[in-house]
Amino acid sequence: MAKLRIATFNINGIRSRLAALLQWLEREAPDVVCLQELKAVDSAFPVDALREAGYGAVWQGQSAWNGVAILAKGDAPLERRRSLPGFEDDTHSRYIEAAVGGVLIVCLYLPNGNPQPGPKFDYKLAWFDHLIAHAAQLYQSGHPVVIAGDFNVVPTDEDIYNPRSWLKDALLQPESRERYRKLLAQGWTDALRTHFGEQRVYTFWDYFRRHWDTNSGLRIDHLLLSADLAPRLRDAGVDRWVRGEPHASDHAPTWIDLEMGADRRRKSG
């Protein structure tokens, strides 16, 4: 059986953290990578350096903010779309989807939504609603799909070191959590929670109040699996060592291993 490792990583600036990205790619060698917060225009995306590292890429950049990309070992992904249906006029680069090895990969950077209440939180909820509508179509298609990225949602109080100091944050609001539950209710499998069960696992540690040193983290980077892929989940984890490097992103790469093999046959259509 062939293993397919899919990772998601909010890199928080690909130009300033390119060396760290290349170090991680060399050491961990994921097959597919979803990147968020490129914070670079399309022309500044380091496609040549990534190609030298063995990865093809599709990306959608934006100056100073946002930006998403999908990397694939050995060949460029086949891009399918770069905006949510019905939300094409969104000026933020937050969404891209592409096919890699017979799997549809969705990479997203869901809006943060702070401060709330206000227009930024309203935008977050509207974006989420468009994602839910599109995800329903993807799930019902029967194709193997992975939705990965920085969702900017802490699903439950078990996904944060201590919710009390974050009660007013958009990541923990009932409206944000309700939409995440609505997304999962379509049938998607939250891969990390499924793998780790009740064990606490974090993917983000902010730069304030020594949160990294005290492991005061949040789980906001998620990988959701369609019905076809959920039974193939074999392992999952967070590459915490990347967060501990100098000048690191406040996120750590988060990954899953899927068992893919010749026995994986689907009905046509």
Automatic annotation (TrEMBL):
Probably binds two magnesium or manganese ions per subunit. Its cofactor is Mn(2+); Mg(2+). Mg(2+) binds at N10, E37, D150, N152, D250, H251. The record marks D221 as: Important for catalytic activity. GO terms for molecular function: DNA binding; double-stranded DNA 3'-5' DNA exonuclease activity; endonuclease activity; metal ion binding. The keyword Amino-acid biosynthesis does not apply. It comes from the Bacteria. GO terms for biological process: DNA repair. The keyword Hydrolase applies. Residues 7-251 form the Endonuclease/exonuclease/phosphatase domain. It is an enzyme of class 3 (hydrolase). The active site is at Y109, D150, H251. The record marks N152 as: Transition state stabilizer. Belongs to the DNA repair enzymes AP/ExoA family. This is Exodeoxyribonuclease III. It comes from Paraburkholderia sprentiae WSM5005.
